[in-house]
Amino acid sequence: MKGSLKAIVVAATLAAPIITFAQTATPLTRTQVQAQLRALRSVGYDPANVSNNYPADIQAAEAKLADRQAASSMGSDVGGSSASGYRPPVSRLKSESTYSH
Questions:
Q1: How confident is the model at residue 47, as a pLDDT?
Q2: pLDDT 10s digits, 25-58
Q3: Every domain of the chain and the residues it spans
Q4: Residue (of 5, 24, 37, 18) closest to 45 by Cα position
């Protein structure tokens, strides 16, 4: 009896870390997966192409995509502007029947 209880305690102790690390990341949505696939296709990856070097193909496409994204993020300033907190003036039309009392 004590031997089986020890075995259960030992098994539970060893299984606890495995259970805690089972699902740490949230799963991707269908839209996220489709966006990733479009991005990989934009650098030349074709999932329908049957080749013997599968991991190398997708890894090369991911590397190209990472290079493209790094290059585009280090580009020059495009001159965008932001008007945070700006509220445009409201024109008060006296001729409208809604505003006349």
A1: 85
A2: 788 999 999 999 999 999 989 888 877 888 888 8
A3: 27-68
A4: 37
Specify the amino acid at residue 96.
Answer: E
Question: What is 36-66 written as a DSSP string?
Answer: HHHHHHHTT--TT---S-HHHHHHHHHHHHH
Per-chain mean pLDDT for the chain = 74
Give 42-51 pLDDT, tens digit per residue: 998 988 887 7
Q: Rounded to two decimals, what is the model's pTM? A: 0.47
Task: Compute the half-sphere exposure of residue 17: CA atoms within 13 Å on the CB side of its CA.
Answer: 3
CB 63 within 8 A of CB 81: no
Scan for tokens 């001159």, then name that residue: 79
E strand or H helix at 6: helix 2-20
Residue type, 2: K
73, two tokens: 């993020």
